[in-house]
């Protein structure tokens, strides 16, 4: 009898651990919808953010299962793409507010750059810091960071074009045309990189031999200690098509929460005088939070290669895919959207790329390098508050 009760308690414990994010996400969005209808914008924004973050974590979990079946580099590609889809939906729904309030465009621009800042400094910084504390040093394929930092540097340089033109005496039409051409170039660049990553140079994005040995030793130790538990997680039983369908369903629910977050959040930011920089950071943190959780777990499991793939891969996709898609959606929606980012955004982007290049170029990471990224992020946050 006692054994039966113990088993039931264990099942309940695992059920809560496995599905809390789904229940919290759906219930939070329902509560957010209620507060939205009641005109309580602050509460609606808060619960919508909780709902988006929780369900984004569900998307990340399902995408992680799918990624494990696809292997690297396709695994990290699926993880980053699923997260960026959430980011695009969130930013586009916010962008729609520009129909009545053109200043919202600046918030969307801030969100695009902030997503990269958060990925490369908070996600990478936290994961490398915590992983470094546990393993002293962790090794990854240095070709991965070399390729990604090169891509990001070229991308940052491309985004400088409309920004530089906006400082001259060029008309709004010229800046808009330049932005459109840059977005086309970014999309072409993304397609080339996709072929490079998944076809011709897949070895650039795979774990080094030493890292694989570390993971093998860890798994063998876990097996010998008998710590492995039978996993009844329902999504583990789905095939690839079922996993993709589950991701689609979660993203659809997230879109509902994103609309509430956009409508009430923008009003709230204006009411309390929240700067564009901080608004962009809030949007980025909400969108990127599931990736942060995934990266921290990977770092603690000595899978620093996955951390680098997620952080830098998400940053790359955040610009190369998000910018062209938002440009196209803005054009179809009759919204003027240009890529003339402010000096703080472009400067922070370039400095982030340089910092990432310096901290990952040797193929080894430690907690000091992680702390360096976190310090940079805190400094950026202070500037964003007062900018």
Observed structural traits:
387 residues; mainly alpha; A middle domain of Talin 1; two-stranded antiparallel sheet; 13 helices; 2 strands
Largest sheet: 2 strands, antiparallel
Could you state the order of secondary-structure elements as H and E? HHHHEHHHHHHHHEH
> Percent helix among the residues?
over 70%
Overall 3D shape: globular
Secondary-structure content class: mainly alpha
CATH homologous superfamily heading: NCX, central ion-binding region
Strand order of the largest sheet: 1-2
Number of continuous helical runs: 13
- According to CATH, what is the class? Mainly Alpha
Q: Determine Rg (CA atoms, Å).
A: 21 Å
Distance between the termini: 65 Å
Compute the number of strand runs.
Answer: 2
- Share of residues in strands: under 5%
CATH topology: A middle domain of Talin 1
Unreliable residue stretches: 209-220, 226-230
Total domains: 1
Mean pLDDT: 83
Subcellular location: Membrane
Keywords: Membrane, Transmembrane, Transmembrane helix
GO molecular function: potassium:proton antiporter activity; sodium:proton antiporter activity
Organism: Sulfurimonas gotlandica (strain DSM 19862 / JCM 16533 / GD1)
């Amino acid at each position: 009898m006692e054994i039966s009760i113990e088993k039931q308690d264990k099942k309940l414990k695992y059920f809560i651990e496995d599905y809390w994010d789904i229940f919290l996400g759906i219930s939070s969005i329902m509560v957010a919808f209620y507060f939205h209808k009641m005109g309580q914008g602050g509460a609606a924004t808060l619960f919508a953010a909780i709902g988006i973050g929780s369900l984004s974590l569900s998307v990340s979990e399902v995408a992680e299962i799918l990624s494990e079946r696809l292997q690297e580099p396709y695994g990290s590609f699926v993880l980053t793409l699923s997260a960026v889809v959430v980011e695009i939906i969130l930013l586009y729904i916010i962008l729609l507010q520009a129909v009545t309030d053109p200043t919202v465009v600046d918030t969307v621009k801030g969100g695009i750059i902030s997503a990269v800042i958060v990925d490369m400094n908070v996600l990478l910084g936290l994961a490398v810091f915590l992983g470094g504390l546990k393993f002293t040093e962790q090794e990854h394929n240095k070709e991965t960071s070399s390729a990604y930092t090169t891509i990001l540097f070229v991308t940052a340089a491309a985004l400088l074009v409309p920004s530089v033109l906006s400082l001259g005496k060029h008309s709004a039409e010229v800046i808009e045309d330049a932005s459109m051409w840059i977005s086309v170039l970014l999309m072409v660049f993304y397609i080339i990189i996709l072929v490079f990553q998944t076809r011709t140079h897949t070895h650039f994005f795979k774990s080094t031999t030493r890292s694989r040995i570390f993971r093998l030793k860890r798994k063998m130790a876990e097996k010998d200690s008998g710590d492995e538990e039978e996993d009844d997680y329902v999504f583990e039983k789905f095939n690839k098509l079922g996993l993709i369908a589950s991701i689609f369903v979660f993203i659809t629910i997230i879109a509902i929460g994103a609309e509430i977050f956009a409508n009430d959040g923008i009003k709230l930011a204006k009411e309390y005088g929240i700067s564009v920089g901080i608004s962009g950071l809030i949007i980025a943190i909400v969108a990127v939070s599931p990736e942060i959780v995934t990266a921290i777990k990977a770092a603690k499991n000595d899978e620093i290669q996955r951390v680098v793939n997620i952080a830098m891969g998400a940053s790359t996709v955040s610009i190369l895919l998000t910018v062209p898609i938002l440009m196209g959606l803005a054009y179809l929606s009759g919204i003027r959207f240009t890529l003339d980012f402010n000096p703080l955004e472009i400067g922070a982007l370039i400095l982030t790329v340089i910092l990432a290049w310096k901290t990952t170029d040797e193929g080894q990471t430690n907690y000091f390098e992680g702390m360096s990224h976190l310090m940079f992020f805190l400094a950026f946050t202070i500037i964003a508050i007062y900018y």
